[in-house]
Amino acid sequence: MDDILIFSDNVEDHHERTRRALQRLQDSDLFLKAEKCEFDRQEVEFLGSIIRPGVVAMDPVKLKAIIEWEPPKTVKQVQAFLGFGNFYRRFIRDYSKIVRPLTELTKKDQPFLWTPDCQRAFDTLKKRFTEEPILQIPDPEKPFQIECDASKVATGAVLRQQGEDGLWHPCAYLSKSFTPAERNYQIYDRELLAIVRALEAWRHFLQGSPHPTEILSDHKNLTYFPVNVELQERIRDSKLRDNSVVEYITLKGKATKRPEFGKPEDWSDDNGILLYKNRVYVPPDNQLYRDIVKMHHDAPIMGHPGVQKTYDLVKREYMWPGMRKFIVQYVKGCAACQTSKVNTHPIKPGLIPIQHSGDTRPFRTITMDYITDLPESDGFNAVQVVVDHDVSKAAVFSPCTKNITAEGAMDILQRDVYRRFGLPTKVISDRGPQFISKAFKELHNSLGIETALSTAYHPQTDGETERVNQELDLALRLYCANNPENWAKLLPQFEFAHNQRTHSVTGKSPFELLYGFQPEAAGTVRTTPKHPSTEQRLQSLQEARENTIAAHAQAAAAMSRRLPAAQVPLKLGDKVLLNTKNLRLPYVSRKLIPKRVGPFTIVKVLGPVTFKLKLPEKWKIHPVFHAALLTPYHTTKEHGPDYVRPPPIPTPESTEGAEWEVEAILSRRTRGTQKQYLVAWKGWPASENSWEPEKHLKNAQSILRNYKKRHKLS
């Protein structure tokens, strides 16, 4: 939205009109930039003019440019100077007559020759500008007076109204050169043409005026002319806004500094619209650029194309310097594209290894997870997987049920892990319901065990258990596909198979790091055993564990060196979009779910790749996310503000349709036998208010009761 001017006779009316205008904008999802708004002003710059109570003047900034303007040395520089003059010609009496020597220089195939007449016209026009003429603002309730005149080269006119001092003050000046055919008119016809041009130019003031308009002319014969003329309305389809059309040449020498504009023959004029190679040249105006790109990007028939396709569409009809760069930034700032399109350049942070505790004892730091939805075997349909994270990488597989509770998980840990290896100092897990429950945390806290939960929807945090899970999944498919109810009996064998394999980092098996020897398995060749002393075995075991820790540290260091930290361009206070692939959003079809929702603000940086977001209060999910699930949200001045609607509340189970939060009930009506309520939705603009039957408000009973109570409804 650009260029809104509200004027009033007094402060009270002004505040009321301003409030109504802002309400209309809000209802229509239109936005204003606060820093570009000015309120309660008695002087304002508007469309290149300074408006004060009752009068309008030229902008002093542009006048300063006139004072410093050097005499033109090329045709294009003459065009630039005349373009500035055309914008303010209504302030200058006899404008066309003054600039005629300059306009002659711009004719095609005319040699450029700066004559004394040209210099005189240039100096006269600068002098007229620097005298800062002031025009009175037309009042439609007062009578108008028009003074017309014609010379051999142009017509001129002045529109006047009487001021508070009783004198007639100019409201506008009009001047226009004759065409070659019009120069052959008789003086009578030239003077009459001056009147016709004035009436056409100011018809929007004169038509509907409650007073007759007085026309002054120095040609006496015209007083006998029976003035009863029906002026023909002329409607022109303008592709550019009138206030911006002349801006393209208001900067001195602009044309000569743009070699990409090509040769002079590339330019043409179509009824006042400047064309470059038959494309409309758009003058410097960001809002105008934005309107044009919006038509070719946001419209339903365009479908939000990417940068290249948007650029191809725009350049068919328009051109301006830096057009591609503007379109790149516009598309970058489009909220619809950011939330719905595939992200071809996602954040790809490297995996940051979990810090080693330094303890050489096994099972001091453990990771745990579940493999679920297995066919029932001996009453079980899931496996609890526990892995020694820091030292041996040994695993413990325990059969369980999918809906195991926190107490059940603790019972298995005590039976299969703690009784064999002692209590750990730290338990790493995902955000399963067993691990985030209050009971699980309290049981571990009472034992002095730290619980560390992974970020939401990022299983790579507990990568150790995830890899073991993949290994166990493979074993179950290989050995239980034909006898799926038998997997529980085979689980101890799968555990043994994992623990007797050599680990790629340590070079030893988990079994050897736990017990100091490699167990015998089927197919082992028996040789004469050499039994080292107990002391030697303990020493070898300690050395092996220390070497293991060193190997893990070396692997972690190598991983850290590969971490592309620069690929995580997020910091405190940034706005980001959240990937929806793990969210259960209440849409009818997952195909229609936006790929990202937001934007949300980063309120805490918990690590190089872990961030806490400010989520809506109704969202019952953990607010900490890995950088891989986040996308920076972009706002650009080229695109302007977006209206981003709030996403629906994630639900544990998918529902048949989206449910939105009721903010207020505004009105009531009856359609047939059905009572309906006008509902305002929380976080949505007034344009989205809707009439809903009472049965749709079952989750907003308190708001409904309060509405009925206020309006005394049963």
UniProtKB/TrEMBL annotation:
Residue stretches making up the Chromo domain: 660-714
Pfam families found in the cross-reference section: Chromo (PF00385), Integrase_H2C2 (PF17921), RT_RNaseH_2 (PF17919), rve (PF00665), SH3_Tf2-1 (PF24626)
Transmembrane segments: none
SUPFAM superfamilies per record: Chromo domain-like (SSF54160), DNA/RNA polymerases (SSF56672), Ribonuclease H-like (SSF53098)
GO function term, MF aspect, one: metal ion binding
Entry's Gene Ontology BP terms: chromatin remodeling; DNA integration; DNA recombination; proteolysis
Source organism of this protein record: Trametes cubensis
Record keywords: Aspartyl protease, DNA integration, DNA recombination, DNA-binding, DNA-directed DNA polymerase, Hydrolase, Magnesium, Metal-binding, Multifunctional enzyme, Nucleotidyltransferase, Protease, RNA-binding, RNA-directed DNA polymerase, Transferase
Annotated protein name in UniProt: Uncharacterized protein
Entry keyword annotation includes Metal-binding: yes
Gene Ontology CC annotation, any one: nucleus
Domain Reverse transcriptase stretches: 1-51
